[in-house]
Structures are given as C-alpha cells and as structure tokens.
Amino acid sequence: MSSDDPAPGPHAASESDVMAARLATIVANSDDVIISKTLGGIITSWNGGATRIFGYEPEEIIGQHISKIIPPELMDEEKDIIARLSRGERIEHFETIRLTKDGKRVHISLTVSPMRDSGGRIIGASKVARDITDRKRAEETQRLLIDELNHRIKNTLATVQAIATQTLRRSASPTEFVESFSGRIKALARAHGLLTAGSFQGAEITDLVREQLLLGDEDDQRISQSGPAVTLEAQPALHLALVLHELGTNARKHGALSVVSGSVAVRWQVQSSNGRHLKLSWREIGGPRVKAPSTQGFGSVLIENSLRAYGGDVAVTYAEDGVICEINLPLAELSHPIGAFARDARSFGGGATGPLLGIGGKRVLVVEDEPLIGMVLTDYLQEAGCEIVGPAQSAEQAEQMARTEAIDAALVDGNLAGQRADKIVSALRERRIPFAFVTGYGREALPPGSENAPIIEKPFTEGQVITTLNRLLNSVVQLRSGRLEG
Asked: What's the pTM?
C-alpha cells in the first residue's frame, strides 16, 4: 500500500457502526417481537414490539427466564426448541400461545434462529414473533358460524322430517297428507324468511301473524290483529308460526274463515308479573257452529307441545259461536349464543358383539328441546316397546330427571337452547346410565370425556335410533356379564 492511499481503518469502522445503528433502529421500532436469549433460556434483549405485545419493559424482563411468558402447559415446547437449536436448526412460523404481563394469552407466529459466537459455536437464539390473535379470532368466528349453520340446517331437516312423519301418521289419504304437509312446510318457510331477514336474531309477532294468516292477501278484512311490538327469539318464533298456521288452517277448513261472514281477531299483550309473558288471544266469530273434536289431531298436539317446550301453555274453548284459544308464552331477554362446535359426526359402532338383546320394557330418558323432534323420538321408542321419561326440554329439567328418575338409558340432545349438556351427562355418568347423543353438532360440541360416546346425527331414521339404543344397552349388558372389558 502506498503512502498516498487513505487509511482504511477509521472509514470501515464508521460504516460498520452506521450499519449496526440502522439495524438497532429497525429492531427497536419493529411492530414484531424481536428478542434474544441464551441457550439456558435467559432473556438478553427485548425490543419495543415485545413491550407492546407482552407488556414488560426491557428493565423488567431482561435477565429473566423465557418461561415467564410461556403458559405452564406449554413448557415442553421450550425444551424442544432448545434441543433443535442445539442441533443448529432454524424454526420457522411456529404457531403457539404466550402470556402477557397481565396474564392474557396471545396467539403468536414464532421464528427462532440459532445465534453463534465468532468461533461458530451456538450460544443462544433470536426470536421473532408476530401477534396473530386477531387472525385466530377471525378463524374461530368463521368456524363457529359454519358450525352453527351446520347445526341449524340439520335441525331444520330433522324438524321437516318430524312434520312429515307426524302428518303421515294422522292422514287418512295421500291427498290429505300432501295438503297438510305442504301447508306446514310453507308455514315453516315463511317463518324462516322472516328470521333470515333479521339475521336469525328473532322475529316480530306482527310479522308472524301477517305471514301465517293473511297469506299474501293484505286486504282480507276478516282478519284483525292488535298488540304491542314484541320480538321473539328464533326458536319460539318458529313454533309460534306453526301454531298460528294450525289455527289458521283449521279456521279456513272448518271455522270462521270457511264462510264469508266469519272473522278472526288476534290480540296480544305483554304482562310483567312473575317475569315477562306474552298473552295472545285467538277468537273466531261468525263461523259455523263449533263442536269439540272427538280425537286429538296432530295440529292440536303440535300446538300444545310447541308451547310447552318454552314453558308456555294453551287453553282452547269450543264455544258455539267460534273457537277461542288463549296462549301464554314466557318471554326471555333476546340472547343468541353460538357454541364452539365442530363437525365430526360418527355413528355409534359400539364394538359390541353377539346378538342384540332388545329394548322392550326399557325406560329411556329423552332430552330434546325441539318438540317435534322429541315427538318423533317418543313415537319411535314407544313402537319399540320402550317407556318414555320426558321428553325433557330444558337443561335444568333434564339434569333433574337424570339424577332422580328410574331410567335404563338416555338419548340426549347435545345443545339445549344454547346450553351444553355437561351437567346432564355428568349426572348420567355418576349413576352409570348409558346414553347416546342426538345432535346436529359434531363431536367437539360434546362434554369433555365424550370422545367415544355414540352419536345419532340429525336428521335421523327410526332404524338409526333403535339400532343405536339397542347396541348401547347390549354393550352394557355384556359389560356387566363380563363379556367385554372396560
């Protein structure tokens, strides 16, 4: 090097310092977590992104062990990370959970790289993490919505199946069946249309009355309605729609609306004594002379069971000048729970061997908040010779029956008006009573420990119900006789 060449030392050092300063600025101002630690897990650096996400200032956390931000149940993750780093591996986009200063859990995507000294020995690790909590929350919400849609579709199909079954049982001819069934499905469709318009959050009673009674004829002066604005939750709204359809159909066939001079007045009010109650009065005037029917048809059964499912009741008077129907229905505050449910829907294989032993004479608890589906289950089981306990239509009633009633087995809806069946299942397990789930949800909706529980998926057939219950009870008998282990 000639004496005229500039000395490289100071210039090179200055450029290196600039590069280091730039890198330090990038790290300090990054929105991502950038930290370093020793192989022993002691934190040696902590940037502003880490403070923003985890809440610790650098002086609080540097020198502390990395386990300070790791949930106890995930400590083994850190052992695996250290083992892989020691082998010189780089860990990319590892999704996990870490703890903030205030104990909140944060979903992060983590990249871990080994740090080496000047001799190439691994002395620690650098970690870069990104907060993905919002993304995870959005994914969970999407999954819940899909699962809820899946449940509602299956429950609707099971309701249609129940209507078809019950209508067929009580129809004198195919023509009568088609007419009755079509009318009920149209009533259900009109109610679903109202609920869909309101994002399935509820329906106004005025709209229900209009849709089910006027049937598109807004000028029909024979039908009058009056009452305050009342919004019913989705399921009670569907059932009140079916009730109004049955009353309207009977009035058009046999009652006041079967003649030009007849009329129907629907009046309702909300009473607040002992909780909020809807009091609805249906009164027919000017129709043919009324006589009480000698037998109870499906329409009457549907009305009674639909209202009873929500703690309501109905009183029908067959007065000479027209039918009077008084309905009492408790009103809940509108709430719309969405459960965290998945889509696994295995049928019960049971693993039992040998011939089925039959279920005649067995007492079976039916837990189902959908009255029409409960009616179908009851019919199937009674025809197979079972005695029915219930149907229980609320979680509280079902738990009480599960603890006190003499029963041999139970069929349990996986979700009752937004409430899980955990306590019901716990009561059955305590008494060693076998049970199967009847549900439109999947296995993740079931109480913990139900991984091997039998599932009858909605909509179901009579054969699925009877076969599952038969195998369930058969397995219990074999277990008690020592032919199966478990």
From this structure: 0.51
Confidence band of 152 (pLDDT split at 50, 70, 90): confident
For residue 211, give the nearest of 227, 200, 223, 201 by alpha carbon. 223
CATH number for 26-131: choose from 3.40.50.300, 3.40.50.150, 3.50.50.60, 3.30.450.20: 3.30.450.20
Q: Residue 171 is encoded by which pair of tokens? A: 């129809």
Q: Is the peptide bond preceding residue 391 cis, with omega within 30 degrees of 0?
A: yes
Q: Enter the DSSP assignment of 119.
A: T
Q: pLDDT tens digits for 457-474?
A: 887 878 788 888 887 887
Topology of domain 363-480, CATH: Rossmann fold (3.40.50)
Segment among 12-16, 43-47, 323-327, 407-411 with least mean pLDDT: 12-16
For 115, other C-beta atoms within 10 Å of its C-beta total: 16
CA angle, corner 37, sides to 36 and 38, nearest 5? 140
Q: Residue 410's closest CA among 437, 385, 384?
A: 437
Round to whole Å and give the CA distance between 245 and 215.
10
Residue in 426, 411, 326 with CA at minimum distance from that of residue 369: 411
Q: Which of 208, 214, 212, 210 is nearest to 235 (CA)?
A: 208
- Treating both helix axes as pointing N-terminal to C-terminal, what angle do 133-169 and 174-197 enclose, rounded to 10 degrees? 160
Residue 344 and residue 443 in contact, taking contact as beta carbons nearer than 8 Å: yes
Instruction: Tell me the per-residue pLDDT of 248-279, one tens digit each, with 9 for 90 and over.
Output: 888 888 888 888 889 999 999 988 877 888 99
Give residue 4's pLDDT.
52
Q: Are strands 263-271 and 223-226 parallel, antiparallel or unpaired?
A: parallel
Domain boundaries along the sequence of the chain: 26-131, 170-330, 363-480
* 8 A C-beta contact, residue 52 and residue 27: no
Contacts of 60 (CB under 8 A, 6+ apart): 101
Beta strands in 294-434 (DSSP E): 313-319, 322-330, 363-367, 387-392, 409-413, 415-416, 419-420
